[in-house]
Amino acid sequence: MTAPKKLFIKTYGCQMNVYDSERMAESLGGQGYVATDTPDDADMILLNTCHIREKAAEKIYSELGRMRPFKEANPDLKIGVAGCVAQAEGAEIMARQPMVDLVVGPQSYHRLPELEAKVRDGQKALDTDFPEEDKFEHLVARPKAKRGPTAFLTVQEGCDKFCAFCVVPYTRGAEVSRPAERVMGEALDLVERGVREITLLGQNVNAYHGHARGLSGLIRDLAKVDGLERIRFTTSHPNDMDDDLIAAHGDCDKLMPYLHLPVQSGSDKILKAMNRKHTAESYVRLIERIRGVRPDLLLSGDFIVGFPGETEADFQATLDLVEAVGYGQAYSFKYSPRPGTPAAERAEVDAGEADERLQRLQALLTRQQKAAQDEMVGREVTVLFEKPGRLRGQMVGKSEYLHAVHVTSDKVGRGDLARVRIVESVRNSLAGEVI
Ligand code: 5AD
Ligand code: SF4
């Protein structure tokens, strides 16, 4: 029997890439590959890339530079670039960096076995198609191995919203939803293998239309699965929060009280320029409605500062919105022009000004995040335990609000759900006692 070949995947960017990396590893499993967590002894290295903000391609070139010694030490090593940078600039990467054997876009990685065979044969392989066939149906089945208690499950990909700053509609293509029965099949399989919490993923997941009643229909069906205890979804657009999805936050016990709902800016002028198709006011009303059915909801968001045309008054409107809404978690970015997007043609805000705004916004968001975490002290939460902590006897998991919680207890193990009283808020986690 030949020894298994080793596959090292480095993943950048969003959770969808984490999911894709898992599926790519499974797919190459059929070609005799096993995963390794270091590039030193790998027979194949795959960089699963992200293109959302600036310097993505440069980052990949420097990462490839770091891989050079491995290729020199092992001429049989194959190097591949996957993900959204591959989609956007794959051919150029291959031309500029001869070390790269394989380029595969996010919509064609089910063809990896054929591409791998090609590179093993000494050829180069490039596939950045948007094929007709459903890649998930053409992937080798997940092996039946036991899994950890949480898993991602991609249900929707691509985006038709065309926010003026964003490359996603170009790199991931048009919105496509996986049929509900296939998602259910994959979910049942995950639960059979020990998964108790599933996070449904999509670039615009609440635009999911693979179920007659949309995302909430899928969530309600999943909630009937015995053994599946928690459901989450990310990431959403405000305009796709329909009535039943809002209602589900109030009446579906398995749907966790955490929502990532990006607004990007608090200025109507900037929201219009961003092509967001909602106003600050409509967003605030929407949050009020969701909190009306689920008052303890922990809200998360994304913000961009320094979008072309943003004045100090526009930025102030963003700060005002953040103050009015209150976020338990948030991500904020300085605008970076992405080639091919409409906003890239517009005059940029002074970089120093944008940096300064980003710092001010981050200071406010950090304050809110800390307040939301500190506010948990004294409360009882339910924790799904995922792994041992750094200290002896410690277990770490997540509360329903996605806060990391650690306890020192021999009563709980991996995959257990337990009620925990929070006793202390430390830097990035909460300390608790099992009740
Ligand atoms: N510049 C800065 N931030 C961006 N994002 C998307 N495109 C850009 C860009 N060109 C941010 C948005 C989005 C998150 C995933 O990344 O806030 O919600
Ligand atoms: Fe990009 Fe999200 Fe806007 Fe779609 S909705 S274009 S993924 S920021």
TrEMBL record:
It comes from the Bacteria. The keyword Ubl conjugation does not apply. It catalyses: 2-thio-N(6)-dimethylallyladenosine(37) in tRNA + S-adenosyl-L-methionine = 2-methylsulfanyl-N(6)-dimethylallyladenosine(37) in tRNA + S-adenosyl-L-homocysteine + H(+); N(6)-dimethylallyladenosine(37) in tRNA + (sulfur carrier)-SH + AH2 + S-adenosyl-L-methionine = 2-thio-N(6)-dimethylallyladenosine(37) in tRNA + (sulfur carrier)-H + 5'-deoxyadenosine + L-methionine + A + H(+); N(6)-dimethylallyladenosine(37) in tRNA + (sulfur carrier)-SH + AH2 + 2 S-adenosyl-L-methionine = 2-methylsulfanyl-N(6)-dimethylallyladenosine(37) in tRNA + (sulfur carrier)-H + 5'-deoxyadenosine + L-methionine + A + S-adenosyl-L-homocysteine + 2 H(+). Its main location: cytoplasm. [4Fe-4S] cluster 2 binds at C159, C163, C166. GO terms for molecular function: 4 iron, 4 sulfur cluster binding; metal ion binding; tRNA-2-methylthio-N(6)-dimethylallyladenosine(37) synthase activity. This is tRNA-2-methylthio-N(6)-dimethylallyladenosine synthase. The lineage of its organism: Bacteria, Pseudomonadati, Pseudomonadota, Alphaproteobacteria, Rhodobacterales. The gene is miaB.
